Amino acid sequence: MTCVCGSDLWPWRGAEPIGDPHPMGHEYVGFVEEVGSAVTSVKPGQFVVGSFATSDNTCANCRNGFQSNCLHREFMSTCQADYVRIPNAQGTLVATDDIPDERLWPGLLAVSDVMGTGWWAADAAEVKPGSTAVVVGDGAVGLCAVIVAKELGAERIIAMSRHETRQNLAREFGATDIVTERGDEGAARIKELTGGIGADSVLECVGTPQAMHQALHSARPGGNVGFVGVPHDDAVDGQELFFSHVGLRGGPAPVRRYLPDLIDRVMGGRIDPGKVFDLTLPLDQVAEGYKAMDERRAIKALLTP
Ligand SMILES: [Zn+2]
Ligand SMILES: [Zn+2]
Q: Fewer CB within 10 Å of terminal CB in the chain, N or C?
């Protein structure tokens, strides 16, 4: 099972050059068909979940928990297909104990990127029990980030969204407040809701300069911004950051670090990030999935064989 990612829309819109035609996509769960001679950690027939960034899980960066910066990293790229080859399979794939019930597959698929990325956003923004967390972005990652903020015990979770179905899902996932204003107005509203100070943690899940400004202006001095939207323009003013006392950390999520825990949370029914999929299409209609997401008719498109 695979899906379309918000980040797939960048090349689709022409914002990133693509060479030859090739299958897209980097999110996947599925059954092992065959393994290479060096692979002993998984075997044919097992149901596996992997990260969009492959890793050996043994090098120094992996051991430090930054598997998405593995010295042998290869990003997945051809998952919107019937079969996919997983480089670094030994360190990348995590097999479930049993074959999961089919209704859990979408949730496990979400773990391979958007849920893991949401977790990293919250981790990077240092969400703590009792804190106030703001989520910028109401795409699949932003909505998953709301789940994480709740799992990590944030007392107040403010989701920034002006889209009703997404607001409803954010509330279902644990958002306590919704802010519809954007940009400086959005940041001003966050200040209003936080005693004029700003939030402890802000999770930036978009990647545009506007979203980054909004995030930086919404955090309190001493607070932290975790940014997981892939930046496509310079968005950070060094001098402004210096005087803000806001901590900033982001990057591609080390999903592999979180996989065992997230698989358990989904398999145990504690979280259901699969709810972000609001459109299911057969693989050969993948183009409609891109279109629906681009036009914001769908949050995230699930693709079935
Ligand atoms: Zn993705
Ligand atoms: Zn590594």
A: C
